[in-house]
UniProtKB/TrEMBL annotation:
Organism of this sequence: Streptomyces ovatisporus
A Pfam family: Glycos_transf_1
Keyword Transmembrane: yes
Residues annotated as domain Glycosyl transferase family: 704-855
Polar residues bias spans: 1-12
Protein name as annotated: D-inositol 3-phosphate glycosyltransferase
Amino acid sequence: MSATKTTGTRSRTIAAGSPPRHRTSRAAAALTGATLLAGAGNYSLSLLMVHMLAPAEYVRYSTASNVLLAVGTFAGATMPALVTRELADRPPGPVQRARGVRLCLRTAGIYALVCGAGACAACATYAGPALMAAVAAAAVLLWANATGAGCLQSRQDFGRLAVLWPAEAAVRAVASLSFLLVGRSSAGAVAGIAAGAAATAGAAFLSDRRPLPARRTARAHRPPPRAAGGGPAPWRRAASVGVAQALMCLLPSLDVVVAAAVRSGSTELAPYQGLLVLARVPLYAATALAAVLLPQLTASPVVPAAEAPSTPPTAAPDAAPAARGRIDHAPVHRALRLHWAAALTVTVTVVTCPRPLLALAVPPSYAGSAALLLPLAIAGLAAATLTMTATVFLARGPLRQQMRLLAAACPAGALLYAATAGHPARLAWSAALLTTATAAVSLVLAGRRIASPLWRTAAASCVTAAAVACVLYALRGHTALWCLAVVVLAATVAAAVRDRQRIRTQGPLRVLHLAFEDPRRPGAGGGSVRTHEIDRRLAARGVEVTAVCAPWPGPGCTPTVRDGVRYLPLPRRPGPLAGSGKLCQLAYFCAVLTGLWRLIRRMDPDLVVEDFAAPFSSVCVPWLTRRPVVGVVQWLAAAEKSKQYRLPFHLVERLGLRSHSTLVAVSEGLAAELRRRRPGAQVTALPNGIDRAAFTAPAGAAREHVLYLGRLETSSKGLDLLLRAYASAAPRTTCDLLIAGDGPDAGAARALARVLGVEGRIRWLGRVEGEARYALMADARLVCVPSRYETFGLVAAEALATRTPVLAFDIPNVRDLVTDAVGVRVPPEDVRAYGDALAELAADPARCRRLGSAGPASVVHLDWDAVARSQLALYERAVGRERSEDGHWPGRGEGTGRGAVT
């Protein structure tokens, strides 16, 4: 039975018994978790066999298990599809269900006999009678197990399946180890596979509700024959599904089967087969996802074609697409996104695994063949993708395209693998190229079937995975850093998968600002000033802003609300890291990567803003969430940090730039650099502003000192250069040097002043804020900006607003502010020239007054209110929301206060 629901002009036919989406999501998560448990158990058993069996016995076991893997995959893909389709086509009721199950059991029996004979024939060249008997029994029981699982899957009873799959792995492990205690032979290990299949098959049929009533009752309720044109007979459907799945399951295992047959089970294939266990993890996970996707597609909404709108959704898999309409692509995209996220993560982890960790997973003799991991992992990823795309054709067809593709790939692969069997590296790359080409063609065909280009998403995912693999490969020599990067990568992928985009059309705009630096933090620079000045103006206009910042050692690091902006340290409790500022900053990045999904889930923002910060610049926030993201770039110097710490920060910065499509630069020079590095992004230049109080600060009468105001730091702010320059100028001037600010290099600066002999000429004022900051600038004869690099030069702009000239190095961004009319520039990092210019300006008050008088006019256009309005307009465009004529958003007041920090 089906129910029809019409929305607008689109008609959708929806199965009446299909579960709600949230229930399906929970079932998919449970089944995927069960598959991971079962896969972990099987994987651990395989690794145990590597160590317990002699090389010759392990080759026999591995080849036989690969044959049975093909049989099990064939059965697991064929019978659930057949049972689901057969029971869906029958009228509801226990009797008709029993007839369908009986028919499927007969079909499974025929396939089991054929597969058992084929499995024995594949192992005949190297297996003894005991091993062949175990292989035959396991092949038959695997088909029975698949039929029982199909009965549960047809009812979408994923809860029982989630219990049975790990149970099968547990029974298999116990039975295999028990048989090995009797005699360490490959036959005993394979007999454990048969025992696990037998146990779970019986449990599946017992858990199904009366699947096999008496024959007399079944005959009394025999349904009428199917009308002509109502679809193919069950036997024909079983044959088509079986052939397609046989070819699909044979292709991933064809390299091992052909190579073992050609080389008669040579022990030289042991490293190849041992590493194949690691490379095929994505295939195991894809099998679980396909099991969840199949019943969803079987009962998913179908958009009928215009020429045949009344075609029933239960058409046969071999029916033409025009006769059945288009499959709803939403479940396909959800499953493929999850597949690529998990599979690519596993693949890059396996490919870049350091040698010490690889030696723990496989014997040292196998680890010497680690070069095979790359092609084997590519082949495993392609086989997993092929499994996913084949589900689209299994659910609603047509199977002819898939069968033709696989029928061409399998013979070609057999010939190719036979020619390269003597060279494991050539064999591995042959498998990678053939399987990847087949998966790519299948991906294109599946995209056409659901009227959605899947290959674009796959290509983007692979490019991203390649970039991540380069970063992990660079860290292979540092095992601890590699492990940390893998943990962060896994958490990032999990966060991106769990995030769900919600578009709110009412209520105030909510912004989650990843600001990195709290303005209250000791040593906070101009970036935090910009963040607060803009965010507080947005809050005054009704925007709900939560600024997430790195914690810092000492008091005051608590959640607070300041000028309407909520500040939240992340992580909230840094624990033993709280004693180090640098470790707190690194903890912030880790917390963003692993906990962003929690923040988004709790605060439900419309927009995420990421401030680029040292040393990585960006941590690829757009790839962690589906919410719109705007990057605010005040800093692009990861290359310098890479040289300083000898770590690949510049690679992370390059990756972060690729992730962003909307960027805000604080200067035109920085905007030009961003457009050069990220051509496809929308880059907007919005300079910093100046508080109006700076223009009205009263100038002092004396102006007998020079001033440095800013973060006490040497690598970027160049405080050490200023001290050396002042030491050379001190004998030629009577002006003292005032240093206002705090920062990480305060102690080193004081020590350097003592060494240079100018400690008595320097006054350390500490941190100065608010109007006192502008009064201090206005009372100085000269403001020194000795920065090695700047992204804007906020101190220089504020000094010019207070009618005080600026002495700076001739570096990008600063030279746009400090022109010859308002200040003096000297060659970058030229300490002698800086000292000479400082002495000349300090000795010429009239020139300083003349340069300072031109300062306010040169920076009068820098207005925080105008910058905030422009940035808010950019935010609104990013989220697709517009204000009403009175300046408010639709429905303002609804939901006010959500996402508050407690």
